[in-house]
Amino acid sequence: MTRCLPIDPRNPAPPFLARAAEVLRQGGILAYPTETLYGLGVDPFNLEALERLYCLKGRPASLPLSLLVRDPEMLRTVVLEIPPGALRILQAFLPGPLTAVLPAARRLPDRLTGGSGKIGVRISSHPLAARLFAVHPFPFTTTSANPTGRPGARNAREVQAYFPEGLDCILDGGPAPGGIGSTVVDLTAEPPVILREGAIPAAELRRFSPIRMRMDRILS
Questions:
Q1: 34-54, pLDDT tens digit by residue?
Q2: What is the predicted pLDDT for the residue at 217?
Q3: Integer angstrom CA distances of residue 127 from 25, 27, 98, 156, 176
Q4: Phi, psi at residue 181, to the nearest 5°?
Q5: Considering the entire predicted model, what is its pTM?
């Protein structure tokens, strides 16, 4: 069974953080808590790690993965541009349970973006996120810790039940406080389009921008 490391998100043990960083550097798959659900992280520039992650989740190749970044400065390294109409939403809801879909930087692998030319980006408000970036100052993937089409894992026990094999490390930071996925908004569209309504209600987003909703469900 995958090793599960109990960790205090606000005061994490340095050896456990070092182990998490090592997993990401060596092409492994790391499970970790966010403010919404547990996520799965790999190095987005390691194609073998991406393939492992897609296979583990049973995720169709056409579906892109999202990235977790430390701050707006790191966000700008993975996007081509920030459309003018996107800035108010980004400033209002990041860090937080928003996945912002933006034009992908050309250096990002097509395997990551699903060939869409777009990338979903999150800045997490979970206290463990900042600690992870202190030891691994690079973007990593943030896709929900579940087989594609199943409910997202809300705690480490559910992660282990879904994936008794295949993960390299689980950081058990207790229950994910949100218990529901992030809201996914395509900010490349004009007006922006909600692809999945999650922790941030559509009504909240409409306070900052005219916004549409896409009716078909996206898989996590």
A1: 999 999 999 999 999 999 999
A2: 57
A3: 21, 24, 16, 17, 11
A4: -65, 165
A5: 0.95
Q: Which residues contact 186 (CB under 8 A, 6 or more apart)?
A: 101, 118, 192, 193, 194, 195, 214
Query: Taking the mean position of all CA atoms in its chain, how far away is CA 155?
Result: 16
Cβ within 8 Å of residue 88, ≥6 positions away: 208, 209
CA distance 124 to 220: 17
At residue 21, what is the residue type?
Answer: A
Pairing of strands 193-196, 183-186: antiparallel
Which CATH superfamily includes the segment(s) 4-213?
A: DHBP synthase (3.90.870.10)
CA–CA separation, 196 and 83 (whole Å): 20
